[in-house]
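Discussion board: Methods & Data

I've been asked by a reviewer to show the raw model output for two of the constructs in my manuscript, not just the figures. I'm not sure how much to include, so I'm pasting the format here to get opinions. Each protein appears as its amino acid sequence followed by a line of discrete structure tokens. Is this the kind of thing reviewers expect to see in a supplement, or should I convert it first? Here is construct A:
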Amino acid sequence: MTSANPAQPATSPARRDAARTGTGPAARGWPVLVGLLLLNAAVAFGGSLASTSGVDGWYADAAKPAWTPPNWVFGPVWTVLYVVMAVAAWLIWRRHGRAATTALVLYGVQLALNAAWTPVFFGAEQLGLGLAIILALEVALVATIVAFHRLTPWVAWLLGPYLAWVLYATTLNAGLAALA
């Protein structure tokens, strides 16, 4: 059996049997999903620790843009986004394995920038440096989305809400910097 699309090789009978019996790569991939969820949870937890003193301190008294949401919105939004991000990365890994290396490295870069932003912005109160980091995050995130799209277009769309939220967060960061 051959595939018309070289990026998607034909499924062999052995692979179909392994998938059906729960012994194939997809079945063995659950630990990777758990690992990605834990990695994203670590970034979220680190961000929460880094932001607590800032949110209750300088940020509470700072002049904010009119479009700033109440603080309680951030936790639920980021929780959903981190879960969807992990699932998207897992789907790319599961479907493409080693062929997804570049896409997953880009995912790691954007996640590292995501992790760096909170302690710089909230912890160190460095609004200008925070803006530089979040702009770099946007570039890395767009590169990640493009790389995911080249592999599996519909999975790339899972990162759309995350990109929208980061763009929104950028306007908040820039607004706070301008008002400071």
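Construct B, same format:
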Amino acid sequence: MPSGIEGDDQKSRSFIERARREQILHAAIDTIAEVGLARASLARIAAHAGISAGLISYHFAGRDDLIAHVVRSVNEGMDQALTERMEAAEDYQGVLRALITGFVRYCADHRTEMYALREIDVATRSEVNEGRATAGREQLTGGITELLREGIREGEFRDFSVRVLALMLTAALEAVPQELYSHPETDADAYADELATAFVLAVRSTQPEENS
């Protein structure tokens, strides 16, 4: 019996700790979106969460560790949502459309989180962090590049400069969070469909399909 009670206590503590960490992460996201990364001190984040700064230090190794967890949390949620949409597509044009519309709509549903992520990215583009920021952009561009190359190989996309189109799409996606956060009246569905249509029309093959 005592061991069972101890087990229940451990589960309760684990649940409470997870809930507290989530509370701190949300407070950090809100604070960064409101005042920017530079002004998002642990004290300010703690005040937003209604807790002491010392409690944040109990759950995270420091401010840098907290920011890293914010980035990881937002990216993991976004990656999961986009993967589900893209895997449901039937062809490469569908995958491309799913990527673009899924990203815009995810940004619309998570405006504060995505704007905070953008603020972190912009603020860390210093000489010290430029390599990390560049690596992140290259990873996104690299994924788009591979998608476009596969579409060309399968004959769904026309022959074009993959690098140029990948960079154009990367830039277009990077502009979405600020647009939606700064202009909440924006029709996200129309934005998503228009952006996706523009890129699908830009890359799709113009060759007529053979009659079966």
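Answer (T.O., handling editor elsewhere):
This is acceptable in a supplement if you add a one-line summary per construct. For B, something like: The chain has a mean pLDDT of 88.
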